[in-house]
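Data availability (excerpt). The following record was deposited with the supplementary files.
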Amino acid sequence: MNDIQLSLEYQQLMNRLDHLDLIDPFHDDYYAEMQAINFQRAFIKAQSERQLLLPSTTSQVLSLSIYTPHDEMIDLMDSLTQIYAKNAQSAEDFETIIYSNINNYDFKGMNIMVKAQVDFLDLYFEIEKSSTRHDIKKYLTEKTGITHYISEHKKGFIIRLHDMNSIDQLQRRIKHLDHFKCNRESFRIMEIELAVDFYRFKHRALVTALFKSICLPSTAENFRVFKNQSGVFTPIPLTPLAMMNKLESGYNIGINHKKADEYWHLYVKTTDQNKQPLPEYKWRIRAEKNIKLNVLNKMDNRLTNLKRVLFDGFKGISFTQLMNSAPQSMKDTYKESIQPFGMEQEIYYDKSRHKRTLQKYIEKNADLNRLISNTVHNLLRNFAISV
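Predicted structure:
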């Protein structure tokens, strides 16, 4: 039998596997350790594959002694520094590529918390007491300490309400409108923005993984990254590393025009609604869906129907993954490129004569979608009582 020389990293993985025998297989620690081992194995495999492609341009042995001239010693130390810098950069690149692939995630095992939230809703209302927009805004500020955006619309007004994540929060806010003899029958949802947040994320590349896997209608368009500039179109970068450069520079991902009936937004959230920095433990990666009036009207946009609007709206934030049976060429494409792989296609039938809208080798991400569904149902419990 031939001896096989294992790298130190593989030897450490083997030791961790041996250690699993000491853990109760029904304990949560066993599952978490297995996922950690699988992730590290994927990382080492990617690192090995990448190393085969890198030419060796620097001597692997650097030596110096007390007789080494000062200039030569400086050159040697500079070379050593460059080697470490290149290795560190390569490790970061490997990590980015791995975290840019949704198939490498086990959200539960990686302790990533998923939470559904209502970012804001725009509520139309009419009043019987003669008052101006300024009167209403001033009164609400005095009563709540919160400055509201209010605009005039038809016979009434539209108010934007942020972070209304329970019927109790909503009722406490809109009760102040009774001061102006508000007609509660007039309440209509004019626009709503829903969010799924990923707390305790491991890497910003999760934004890339979510973009590549998010379920989108076949009509989705205008895929772009953006920052602060308006009127400037920057297409989605073609590779995970190029995308990471954008994400680290504060860019967001947008899908569809911002004024479209439906609009998706993926980004790292590090500030609150007033652009004030959040403490780091509140940072999260956010997947948002904005829904405008044309779509809401089809759902019945009366405020009394809010729970149903939320239920149907959150259906627009779900994800896919690459099938394990995908050929290696497809796996390479999925790993190395950035495309909206979860975008619906024209209806076709697979080999089993099942009707499909996702492209070949792409399937729904059952585990992640189940986590999202659970947190959405937890949110909906907060809206159990009619407005």
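Summary of structural features: Residues 53-59 have pLDDT under 50 and may be disordered.
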